[in-house]
């Protein structure tokens, strides 16, 4: 008798003996999600006095640093503990090498300064990638044949990370998917006195996913957006995804990430079993849009659906939740 058959017998016994309900009730597991495990993604623009709702992400905004403090105040009062910042540039500010990514004029640098002054305890995570800053929209620097130049790219990512750390970021989160970027960023942080002070949350198991669609709108990286399947993982690949997490842990990542989250629950569990560092899961823009629009169309209650989606992540092994629903969750979750 194989395991599957055994399990079937057991299940049907529970089902028909009236035993199942008491078993599942006493076996619910821990469904608690804490506010301190949430990270709220925020898009900061280089324009002034701007708070633009993102069309494909209703309820989410591109916001300029001068309005950021007022925007965050009520959320911090409700228990917001962490944000992840994404820079958004007007097209004329972009160039081939993404110069603004490591410029003191970048909206992310301005935002870190303001958050540090006004909310000293807020944990600032910064997305580190070049796609929002390059004119071609790729996550790295291209060579003369329009292929990614890995070495040049990770050097730029190191420069960007150092500036963000110097400005006051707590966590550097590389989402570019270039080879060896975690070790390069770690090396730069240690060489400049940030070892043990600023941590690295690596987007490790990041799939080339259509669920990032609305994000392209949000980060204004849509227009010239190219195919990223050369550096993001193919959706069917399980082994690569696990090896990527193990590799990033070896390179010194303090957290690894699985992204998207909901469609990749199996990967979350496998990564959780494979690494010792905490596992962050990114419930991405497309997952947000699906839940939002389905609830708006009356398919289900938003709060129930969002909580169930996050509890599923927890069951799979999630330690940290990156979700656009963070403001809602601050209302829904107990302190
Ligand atoms: N590299 C940048 C980046 N950082 C986070 C996302 C997606 C997040 C979301 O969809 O919410 C992306 C887009 C991409 O890589 O294609």
TrEMBL record:
Cofactor(s) listed: Zn(2+)
Transmembrane segments: none
Entry keyword Zinc: yes
Sequence positions that bind Zn(2+): 129, 131, 139
Residues the record lists as binding 5-aminolevulinate 2: 285, 324
Function: Catalyzes an early step in the biosynthesis of tetrapyrroles. Binds two molecules of 5-aminolevulinate per subunit, each at a distinct site, and catalyzes their condensation to form porphobilinogen.
Protein name stated in the entry: Delta-aminolevulinic acid dehydratase
């Amino acid at each position: 008798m194989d395991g599957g058959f055994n399990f079937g017998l057991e299940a049907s016994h529970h089902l028909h003996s009236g035993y199942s309900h008491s078993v599942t009730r006493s076996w619910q597991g821990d469904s608690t999600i804490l506010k301190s495990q949430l990270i709220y993604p925020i898009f900061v623009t280089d324009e002034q006095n701007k708070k633009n709702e993102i069309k494909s992400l209703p309820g989410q905004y591109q916001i300029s640093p001068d309005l950021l403090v007022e925007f965050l105040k009520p959320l911090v009062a409700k228990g917001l503990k962490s944000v992840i910042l994404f820079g958004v540039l007007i097209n004329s500010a972009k160039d081939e090498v993404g110069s603004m990514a490591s410029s003191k004029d970048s909206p992310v640098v301005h935002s870190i300064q303001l958050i540090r002054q006004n909310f000293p305890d807020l944990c600032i995570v910064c997305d580190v990638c070049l796609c929002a800053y390059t004119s071609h929209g790729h996550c790295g620097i291209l060579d003369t044949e329009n292929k990614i130049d890995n070495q040049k790219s990770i050097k730029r990512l190191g420069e960007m990370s150092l500036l963000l750390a110097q400005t006051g970021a707590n966590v550097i989160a590389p989402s570019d998917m270039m080879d060896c970027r975690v070790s390069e960023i770690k090396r730069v942080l240690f060489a400049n006195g940030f070892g043990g002070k600023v941590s690295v949350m690596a987007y490790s198991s990041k799939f080339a996913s259509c669920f990032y669609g609305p994000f392209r709108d949000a980060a204004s990286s849509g227009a010239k957006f190219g195919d990223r399947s050369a550096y993001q993982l193919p959706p069917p690949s399980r082994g690569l995804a696990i090896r990527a997490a193990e590799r990033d842990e070896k390179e010194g990542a303090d957290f690894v990430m699985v992204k998207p989250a909901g469609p990749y629950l199996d990967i979350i569990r496998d990564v959780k079993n494979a690494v010792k560092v905490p596992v962050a899961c990114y419930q991405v823009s497309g997952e947000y849009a699906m839940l939002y629009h389905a609830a708006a169309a009356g398919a289900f209650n938003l709060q129930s659906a969002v909580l169930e989606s996050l509890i599923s992540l927890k069951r799979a092994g999630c330690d940290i939740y990156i979700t656009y629903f963070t403001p809602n969750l601050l209302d829904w979750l107990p302190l």
